Amino acid sequence: MFKIKKKKLFIPIIILVLTAFLALIGYISIIFLGHYVIDEKKLILHASSKIVDQNGDEVASLYTENREPVSINEIPKEVREAFIAVEDKRFYEHHGIDVKSVGRAVYRDILAGGKVEGGSTITQQLAKNIFLTHDKTFLRKTKEVIIAINLERDYSKDKLLEMYLNQLYFGHGVYGIQAASHYYFNKEVKDLTVSEGAVLAAIPKAPSTYSPVLHPDKSKERRDTILGMMNDQGYISAKEAVSAQGRTLGLNVKKQSETPWFDSYIDLVIEEAEDKYSISGEQLLQGGFTIKVPLDSKLQKTAYQVMKQVSYYPGTDQNAEGSAVFINNKTGGVEAAIGGRDYTSKGYNRVTAARQPGSTFKPLAVYGPAMQEKKFKPYSLLKDELQSYDDYTPKNYDSQYEGEVTMSDAITYSKNAPAVWTLNEIGVETGKSYLKANGIDIPDEGLALALGGLEKGVSPLQLAGAFHTFAANGTYTEPYFISSIKDEDGETIAEHKEEGKRVFSKQTSWNMTRMLQQVVKKGTATSGTYHGDLAGKTGSTSYTGVSGATKDAWFAGYTPKITGAVWMGYDKTDQSHYLKGGSAYSTRLFKDILTQAGETGSVFTKPKNVKELESPIKLEPVKMLKADYTFKAAGLFTIELKWDAQEDDRAVYRIYVNKDGKETLLDSVEGKGNYEIPYANLFSGASYKIVPYNTQTKREGEGTDYVQPKLFSS
Q1: Quick check: is 144 catalytic?
Q2: Is 87 part of the annotated catalytic residue set?
Q3: Which of 48, 101, 264, 359 is catalytic?
C-alpha cells in the first residue's frame, strides 16, 4: 500500500520537474531569441525620410521637425495615465504580456466569432511598431511576444513608456507626443492638461478617424470615454472627470511649414507611394527613405507665389481657388503641382479634384480622334449650324453660326456647334476610347462630352496628362511623382518605369500642335504674354444661377518642354460665390507662371517624316475680270483673261466658260492673275468667269460674273 502511494506521488513530481525544466528552457530560449531579433539601433528614433528634386537637391525632410523626443519626466503624470488607461491598464503589473487581457480578448473573440478585441500591451505595441511589420501572422505575433518580454527585461517601465510615447503616430504627419502637443495645442507637452492628454491618447488607435481637426465630434466622444476610464481606474476623481468632459477640445492648431509651396506636391508623393508602391505614409514618414521626384523646385515655388496673387481671380470675393500642374514633356514626370492657393498639408488637393473641363475637351474627345480615324483633316469643313440632336441643342457662345467652318477655325475660336457635330459623325464611343487611352475613363454617353459636359468631371492632373500626349508626339505616359525610392542602406526598393503607349500618330499630334498654336496666337487664348511657342486650349463652364457667371475656368496647353493645366473657380459655386470672368484669367495665369519661372523661348521642332501643316488659305472674293481679244503672230486671235490675284499664291483660280447656256470648267491655275486662250473664235459668243478655289477645304470662294471678251479693247 505504501509503495503504491509512493508511486502515485512520484509521477506528479516528475511532471512538475519536467514542466519547470521546459519552462526554464523556454525562458532561456525567449531570452536568446529576443537578443537575436532585437536590433538596438531601431530604438533610436532617427528615421526621417527626405525628398530630393530632379537635380538631387533636398527639398523637404518628411516631418523631421515633428518628431521631438522628450524625457518621461517632461510628460505630466496625468497625460501618461491617460495613455495607460486606454491602452494597457496593467502596464506596471505585467512583464510584457498581460495574460488577463489576452484571455479576455480570446474569450470575446470566440463569442463574437471573429477578432473584436486586441490584447496587446504597450510593450507589445512598441515591439510591433519599431521592430516588426504589420502583417497579421502567427510568426509575427510570436516575435512580438518574444521581443516584448526581452524589452521588459532590459528596460524600465518608465523607459518603455517614454519610447512608446515618442514613436506614436498622431496623424497629420506628426510623430511623438511632444510634436503632437505642438501641432494640436501649440504648447509644450509639460504644459498639457488632463483633458488635452486624453485628446492625444484618443488619436493613435485610428489617427484619421479620431483626428480632432477632421472629426472633432468623434475625437471628443473618445476623449470623454478615456476620461471615464481614468476615473474607473482611480487616476482621477469623478469630479475631475466630469469637469474635463465638460471642456471643449481646446485646439490651437498651428500649420507651420518652412516651405509651404512644397506641401501639396509632398502629399501627392505620399499618395503615389501608397497607391503605386504599397508603401504607407507611416512607413515613408519614419522609414529613413530617400525619395527622388521629378520636381522642378523653381517652377513649383514660382507657381505657388503667382497663384496667391488676387489679381488673377475674377471672383465675387478674394477666396476664389485655383490649382496648377506641370509635366515634363520628355519623361511624363510632374515638375510642379499646386493643390490650392492656401494649401495646407493633408488638405483638399485640387490637383486631383474632378471639375467640368469645358472646351478643353474638344481636342481630346473630338478633333484628335477625328483626325486619327482619318475622317477629317485640319482644314476639313465642319457644320456650324444651330442643330438639335434629340433633346440636345448645343449653342455657340456668341450665338453666331457660319454654316461651315474649318476644323482649325472651330478650335481656334472654340465653336461649340462644329465640335458636337463632329463627335456625332465619328461616334461617342470612338471619342471615349481615345479619352480612355489618354488616362480619362468616364461613364458619360452623350454628345455633351464634346463640350466637357461630364457627370463627374476630370482633374487638372488628368487633363494635363492627356494634353501631354500631343506634346509627346502622340504617346501617352501616365504622369508620375516618384522617380525612385531608396531605403536607409541606399538600396532601390521602387523605381518608375516608363510605359508609354501610342494613342495618336506623330502627324496627328503635329497637326494638333499647330492648330492649338493658333488658339494662342489669334483665338480664345490671346490673353497675357508669353515669349516662345505655346499651344493650348481654353475652357469654361457657366453657372446657371447667375446670368453671365462662370463656374470653372481652364487653360491646358504645352510648350516644347512642359505641359500644364490651370484651373480656377470656387470649391462650391453658389449665388454668392462665382467667377465674373472666364478662361482669359486662367490663360494669363498659365503664361505668367512659366514666364516668371524662366520657362520661355523654346520653339517646337517638327518630327522627322511628318508633313508640315500649312497655314490656312484665306480666299478673298475675285470681283474684277478683264477679258480681251488680242492678235498674235500668224494671224491668230487669243483671249487674254486678267483678274486681281490674291496675296496668298497658294490660291487656285478656276476658269469657267459659258457657251450656248452650258457652263464648263475650262482650266485651273495656281497663284496667277492671268490666263490665255489661243485660237479663239471671234463669233463663238462664249463668256468667262474666274472663281477662287481653296485646296485645303475643297471649296470655292466668291468669283466674278461672266464676262464676254472685247475686241481691241482700249
Answers
A1: no
A2: yes
A3: 359
